[in-house]
């Protein structure tokens, strides 16, 4: 499971860099400042959680069950949160109206919060 978690973290990190560069260069010409800022928020949260996954995959402080739960919460959370933010920020560039699925943004955020909460609870329960 650790290899899968670390690989996913590396993949999310790589994509965050690609999306960040795409936003800074290509989208800068076609999006308003507010839309670019929104897009950058998606990139930041994706990168934060890429690093989070790397930590989870490398730590020995968590059980496999906790790692697996955190992994699935983070992956789904990043796709929902950052993915929907990317769509919402670039909404005017697409024929699909991402506002119709905007409700998944806070669901993704909640999943990310739960992942961090599971980390906290597991670390607090752990005996020294």
From TrEMBL:
The chain crosses the membrane at residues 5-27, 47-63, 70-89, 101-124. Keywords: Membrane, Transmembrane, Transmembrane helix. Its main location: membrane. It is a multi-pass membrane protein. Coiled coil: none annotated. GO terms for cellular component: plasma membrane. InterPro entries: DUF423. It is found in: Membrane. It comes from the Bacteria. Belongs to the UPF0382 family. This is DUF423 domain-containing protein. It comes from Flavobacterium alvei.
